[in-house]
Amino acid sequence: MIAEAIIYSIIQEYIITFGFIGAKKMDILYRSTRGDQEHISSAEAILSGIAPDGGLYIPANIPSFDMSFDRLSRMDYKELSYYIISMFFTDFEKDMLVRCINNAYDKKFDDR
């Protein structure tokens, strides 16, 4: 449920800020599980939900973590969330992702 809130908040913020899903340099694109060769941005995949061929959207390539597990284990929940989410939502600005994560994981969220 929290992840859905983050994703919804990110998309809503992006559309309010820019009025559309803009074209930017994107490292991670998404494709259908049913083999449709069209690749789209994470924002377009989230807004579409289901691919035109009825498949689900998945990353065309899975990013690799460039940080040690020791360092990851010392991050608080918001930092870890940003690190992971930013690897998959490469078409969003850092400040937008951070703001949406902060809104989703407010003081009521217990990360211990």
Q: What is the number of E strands?
A: 2
CATH overall fold name = threonine synthase, domain 1, chain A
* Number of separate helices: 5
Mean pLDDT: 81
Rg on CA atoms, Å = 15 Å
Major pleated sheet: 2 strands, antiparallel
CATH architecture: Alpha-Beta Complex
Approximately what portion of the residues adopt beta-strand conformation? 5-15%
Shape: globular
Q: Unreliable segments (pLDDT under 50, ≥5 consecutive)?
A: 19-26
Helix content: 40-55%
SSE topology string: HEHEHHH
CATH class: Alpha Beta
Q: What is the CATH homologous superfamily assignment?
A: Threonine synthase, N-terminal domain
Q: Supply the helix-strand structural class.
A: mainly alpha
Distance between the termini: 18 Å
Question: What is this entry, summarized?
Answer:
The chain is built from five helices and two strands; from the N terminus they run H-E-H-E-H-H-H. It is mainly alpha-helical. It has a single domain (2-104), classed as Threonine synthase, N-terminal domain (threonine synthase, domain 1, chain A, Alpha-Beta Complex).
